[in-house]
Amino acid sequence: MSVRVQSITRDEHLAFVTARPSASHTQVPSWGEVKPDWRAESLGWFDGGGQLVGAGLVLLRPLPGPKLPGVRRYLAYLPEGPLIDWESPDLEGLLQPMIEHLRGRGAFAVRMGPPVVVRRWDAEAVKAAIADPAARRLGDVRATSYDPRAGQVADALRRMGWQQTEPGGEDGFAAGQPRYVFQVPFAGRSLDDIRGGLNQQWRRNITKSEKAGVKVVRGGYEDLPAFHELYTETAERDRFLPRPLPYFQRMWNALTAEHQDRMRLYLAHHDGEVLAAATMLTVGEHVWYSYGASTSRRREVQASSAVQWRMMTDAHGLGAAVYDLRGITDTLEESSHLLGLLRFKVGTGGEAVEYLGEWDFPLNRLLHRALNAYLARR
């Protein structure tokens, strides 16, 4: 199959995404505006008949360090993309034109995250793994299901010269989307089914919040500072580096301009005070719990549980097939401060999902090695 890759308009890109049942929120045109340090470009894959058969959002960022006169070299990054036929027998015929296009843009390396699922572990399998003192990492535990096509894709990428990357950080130049996530399947399930699938603690907490009179409302742009105040408190408590308020304001403006329901903000009120808040993202039938925030005050009223259940209820009402709680740790060590987050997400009764991870194609091996050395020092 003869395919060409070229720039397409935002409208063409959005129309392609909209026609699909699901796509990552990092692959919609507006996501490029959320990342101002990167230059965004919409790419289209056209077959021999001129039909658009694939699309992708590529983010271009200059090589860190001193700039040489007349030299602009970029890392080209397609987070959780591109949106192409990953089961195609001619995967090289789809990816090589993209590589050549990005080479012409001055890329010294191409990084992508194929949206290809490798394995799934249901909630019972994850709980058993956490309880097993011999289990160190989720990837070492027998999966509930495995898709052999993912292995075929990985083998094909290695033959082409792609290299699987180590998980990256979220800060600074380091680009990385989670390889392991936790998802709750919604397709074909009633809201009662979904609530019944929650563990006893989750159901008890939701009931507590209802009895305590917690009210969850949808917020707007003007409520982002209240969310951010709780978010920075959460960051300090859970030991992560918070994003600044302008990041969320930029995200809101960009995503809601593209679609009014692309991003939602929920706030839980109790006795006149906001105790918890969260953001929700939607693309097609896929809904993400994106950022959560809460205060340590009045935890007994379970405001965070109220927010989660309201978002799950609204996601179901929107026709979601998947409610995605995003990244989880694959470590099962009791000493990990992230294990509590995994336990929290397992309580939804969903499943842990492993994707194929991120892959690099070095176009300039010297600069690619320099980038990896730079990231290793971060």
Could you explain the architecture of this structure?
- This protein is an alpha+beta fold and 378 residues long.
- Among the domains are: 4-113 and 358-377, Gcn5-related N-acetyltransferase (GNAT) (Aminopeptidase); 187-320, Aminopeptidase, CATH 3.40.630.
- Helix content is 35%, strand content 26%.
- The protein has twelve helices and 16 strands.
- It has helices spanning 10-18, 31-34, 91-104, 123-131, 148-160, 191-197, 200-212, 224-238, 245-258, 303-317, 339-346, 365-377; strands at residues 4-7, 39-46, 52-62, 74-78, 107-112, 117-122, 145-146, 163-164, 180-185, 215-219, 263-270, 273-283, 286-294, 322-327, 351-355, 359-362.
- The strands form two sheets. Strands 7-6-15-9-14-13-12-11-10 form a nine-stranded mixed β-sheet, sandwiched between helices.
- Strand 4 (74-78), helix 3 (91-104) and strand 5 form a beta-alpha-beta unit.
- Helix 7 (200-212) crosses helix 10 (303-317).
- The longest helix is centred in the middle third of the chain and has 15 residues, at 224-238.
- It is globular, with a radius of gyration of 21 Å.
- Residues 168-175 have low confidence and may be disordered.
- This is Peptidoglycan bridge formation glycyltransferase FemA/FemB family protein.
- It comes from Streptomyces tuirus.
- Keywords: Acyltransferase, Cell shape, Cell wall biogenesis/degradation, Peptidoglycan synthesis, Transferase.
- One of its GO terms (biological process) is peptidoglycan biosynthetic process.
- GO terms for molecular function: aminoacyltransferase activity.
